[in-house]
Structures are given as C-alpha cells and as structure tokens.
Amino acid sequence: MTVSLAGNPVTCDLPPLPVLGRDVTVPLVTGGEVTYAALDYAASAPALQRVWDDVAAYAPYYGSVHRGAGYLSQLSTELFEQSRATVAGFLGCRPTDEVVFTRSTTDSLNLLAAALPEGTQVFVFETEHHAALLPWQRAKGARVTCLAAPRTPEQAVAALDVALHGAPKGPKLVCATGASNVTGELWPVRELAAAAHRHGARIVLDAAQLVPHRAVDIGELDVDWVAFSGHKLYAPFGAGVLAGRPDWLRDAEPYLAGGGATRTVVRRADGEVEAEWQESAAARHEAGSPNVIGAYAIASACKALTEAGFDRLDEHEAQLLTLLRDGLAEIPQVRVLSLFGADADRVGVLSFVVSGWNSSHLAAALSAEHGIGVRDGLFCAHPLVKHLLGGRPEDPGACGSPEDLSFNAVRISFGAGTPPEHVTRFVEALATLVREGASWTYHTRNGRCVPAPSA
Ligand SMILES: Cc1ncc(COP(=O)(O)O)c(C=O)c1O
C-alpha cells in the first residue's frame, strides 16, 4: 500500500494483526461520520480479532476454576493453568519462576510492594508511571529513593549504580520501566538489571508499554519480575500478570485473604479463626475465583504476537513512526517530548505539545472534528511530563480549559492493528488545526475539554 504525506509517497504494509473496531464510524461535531482512528493504544489497545474469537469459542465452556467437579470446571481449570504456562513461555520464564494472574500492572506492582521483606530499600526514577512510582511508599517499613530524570540511558545506569553503592545493607528493589508511556523511549533494562544485581538488589520491570511492542525475555534481560496488563496487550478482559521469582511472594502474607489462597481454615477453641495459606506464589496471591477469561485472553494474545513475529511487528511500527515523525517535522509549532533525544530507540508512543495550543483543546478537536482518538494530559506520569515541559515539581498540571495553557501534552500511540492511513490522517488533521484553528468552540465540562453545544 502506498500513502502520501506532504507529497512524499511512503510504502507501508497492512497491519500485521487484525483488531476489533476497524470499521467503527463516529459522528463529527461538524456533521457526518468518519471511520474512527484509534491512536491511543498506550492507554488501552483494541482487542485482537484472534483474542475475541478465542474467548468467544471458549465462552460456552466457561466454568469455575480450581473448585468444581464438573466437566466444564475441569476444562476451565485446565485452560487457566495452560494460560499460565503460555504466559511463562512468552516471557521466557526460568524454571523456578511463577506467573501470578492479577488485574493489571498497577495490581501486580502493588502485590509486589505488599510482599517486600521488612525494611526493603526501593529505588525508582521520577520518570515512572504512577503505578510504578507510588506503591512502594505504602509498603511496610520500606524506604524509597526517587532518582532524578536522567538525560541519557547511560546516565540512568550510572545514577542507579551510585545510589545502590551508597545504600546500607538489607533487601533492595529497583523498579524500572521498559518503555516510557510518555515518550515511548526504551530504557536500558539489561544494564539496569546488571547494576541492580551488582549491588545485591532485585529488579522488577514495568513492561506495560514494552510487552505489546517488543519480545521480552525475563531470563535474557535478567530481571527478577515482569509486570504487565492484558488490556494493553490486545486482551481487554481485566487480567494482568506478575511473573518472576517466587520467594518473596511465598514468604509474604496473601495479597487478599479468602478462598483459594488457603490450605485449611479452623476455628480455634478460643474463638479465633486460623488459616494455613497456600505455599505457591500463584495460589497464595490469587484468592477468590480467578479471572479465567482474562487469563485465557492474555495467553491468546501472547500466541498471536509470537506467531506474527516481533520482527514483523517492529518493522510495521517503525514504518508508522517514520510516517509520524516526518509528518510532525513539517509542522514547526510541534515540539516532541523526549528524555533521551531524537535518535533514541522507541516504541509506537509519542507525546508532543503545539505552541499556542492547550493540549486538551487539541485532543478534543482531533476527536470531535476528525474522529481521531488520542490522549491528552500528564499520562499518570506527572513528574516526568512536568520535567519534560520545563515545569517545577509543584506546578499544577491537568486537563484544563481551552484557554488554560497548563502543563499537559498530547500523546499518540499505535501498534499491531494500526493501518498507516490512521497516522497520515492524524498528521493531516493536526496540520489543518494548527494552520486554520478549530472550527468549533470548546468548553470544559466535568474536567474535560469538550465541544460546546451548538447555539
Ligand atoms: C508504563 C506503565 N506502567 C503501568 C501502567 C498501569 O497500567 P494499568 O492501568 O493497566 O494498571 C501503565 C498504564 O498506562 C503504563 O503505561
């Protein structure tokens, strides 16, 4: 397929994997309808058609997991455990690693935070998503060191090295992202893991934005845990994953107290209830009825991505990124946000600001006038976005009114189901808005910038 951008023909393949919603049309505030361009994969990616089909095929056989004698309960239990094995294979887990199904990356990192040994020192960069930045502050007896945003991957490794070198004895954990949800830039995971291990620390990889785009091998990266969410991996059925070393998890109190996490429960003579908990990390921390559909959907997505091949997915995404960056370069008012510089390796996630525009206004106009879905705001990474925009940590930043040029940005993100014309359409719509202004009036309702009702 050939698409043209500013007169330069660019050849792009069709998207490697079909997703749901390809033909959905949305109304425009200016009249008429248009096919929706979903360019907010970093928030939640559309479901893969394959995932949807697999879930639909299984749905009639749905039954309780780990707690039923019936045929469908047995089948569902088998499917749930097979899904665990598929995820372990997808992540290249070591033989002793365990996969715990959670609700999301946020849930996975909170689970690990709740399992930290007493007095663990945690090291994070201020650039993290809030899900990777905040859970540690709540961990019992943990001490958190928040490192300043580095300007290069090498600086990140050096800063971590220095911080760990000066840390007192005791358990230590580093939490690092694989790919930034703001800039899309890749972090030097292998090198950070090596630095962590050199100083006797463990490392958990927030792979929420990495797993949908790049092959992640836990053994090869030599990280201790990996966390990710199904809904960013084309499997939006409410499940997530924490995979890795079982020891801290086995030694910890169960994340949730309830059925499934227990071996025996007795009422003692003194009236107290006493539980003996399961030993395996998964059983111990998956109390309650497991989300078998969510786990199966993640396993289905893992298989689909593996079969498509990450080389092919990378190539597709690289083509889309070239289209996007060449297009943005033609609009001088655009400033792309970057920590590591223009040449940094990145996934299909890019944030920018446009001089003279409030980002919420721009995102609202892209949606209402062009049928393009992007994200605006600070992307649950307030310290990073403010840093990139030259703000002070205490500066406010939120989705504001069209007149308020507060700290926020626009983010476009895409992946395996994105056709090149969506990116082309986005660039053309942005250029039109910047050149001619919005053709509608916008106001703020419930904290969001939205089209004002017509007079
Ligand atoms: C890098 C990163 N980590 C963690 C999360 C949290 O993911 P979830 O909302 O699925 O828990 C996100 C979500 O945007 C993310 O981008």
Automatic annotation (TrEMBL):
This is Cysteine desulfurase. The keyword Protein biosynthesis does not apply. It is an enzyme of class 2 (transferase). It holds the Pfam family Aminotran_5. Its cofactor is pyridoxal 5'-phosphate. It comes from the Bacteria. Residues 39-426 form the Aminotransferase class V domain. Its EC number is 2.8.1.7. It comes from Actinacidiphila bryophytorum. The keyword Cytoplasm does not apply.
